[in-house]
Design goal:
mainly beta, Neuraminidase, 5-stranded antiparallel beta sheet, 4-stranded antiparallel beta sheet, about 0% helix
């Protein structure tokens, strides 16, 4: 689940009647119907910092939905941003968007070249 930056909308993944997860958006803290924004499945919704875009994962695809919330909730069809093999965490979302708009992911390690892990100890000590 993800609350929009303006605090008015809640994006979430939900499956109905045993079907695959889809991304839905509904008013947050007030009455209103939910709207499905993903046409072919989706999980882990994340809002852009400015609230004008909603991102989600569709298998190994990162999708983007342009959003306009000035007069209700209006959106454009989902568009593919990029594809890749990403590590999914047990606590969604497993990615985020930096303030400058860059995506932050854990990339799945390759069996031929595993990624190093850095462990920082006593990080609070001076």
């Amino acid at each position: 689940m993800a609350v929009s930056p303006n605090g008015l909308w809640l994006a979430y993944a939900s499956a109905s009647r045993g079907e695959k997860n889809e991304i839905w958006v509904r008013p947050y803290g007030r009455e209103g119907a939910a709207v499905r924004v993903s046409p072919d499945g989706g999980v882990e919704p994340v809002w852009a910092r400015d609230g004008r875009e909603l991102f989600y994962l569709e298998t190994n695809r990162v999708m983007s939905v342009a959003v306009d919330t000035r007069a209700g909730f209006n959106f454009k069809p989902a568009a593919l941003l990029f594809e890749g093999q990403f590590t999914r965490s047990s606590q969604p979302p497993s990615y985020d968007i930096a303030p400058d708009g860059r995506f932050l992911f854990l990339r799945a390690p390759s069996p031929s070249s595993p990624s190093p892990i850095t462990v920082v100890l006593n990080w609070m000590s001076r």
